[in-house]
Amino acid sequence: MNKGVMIALLSIGAAQGLKIPIHYVRKKEWRPELFFQTGGMPSSHSAGVSSLTTYIALKRGVPTIDFALSLVYGLIVMYDAQGIRRQAGELTLKVNDLGELIDKIHKEERVEFEEKTPKKLKEMLGHQPEEVLGGAVLGVLAGAAGYFLSKNDRKKTCTKVR
Length: 162
Fold this sequence. Notes:
The protein is mainly alpha-helical. The protein has helices spanning 3-27, 44-60, 65-82, 84-108, 129-161. 28% of the residues are buried.
């Protein structure tokens, strides 16, 4: 398998896994299901793209088109994670609050109303800037570690061949 892809996927998994103990430390609540959810600290999106970009920078060099593509793509993903997706999450909070407001209105009125219980919209869609930064730092560390570990593997392989 492509080592850059493997490193990016591993850093995404590490970021998702770290969400559980970080949430526990912050909220004193153990929630293993966070591994499969979006949002939270650290951003797995940022970890994935920054680990791949770091690996490409170290393996192929900064002046390459590979690095340029990865960097621009990564910046767009991180901007989207903390910008548009976070705004959608905040809008979802307001929509979910509307349901409670409607319930209060209906309780005070004597109007007969049959309502199906809607599913509550998912509120953790995007990331706060510090969550994106946390994911980016994790990704840079994972990308560098992946590069240097694979570099040592190549040295061992080359010395065995000779």
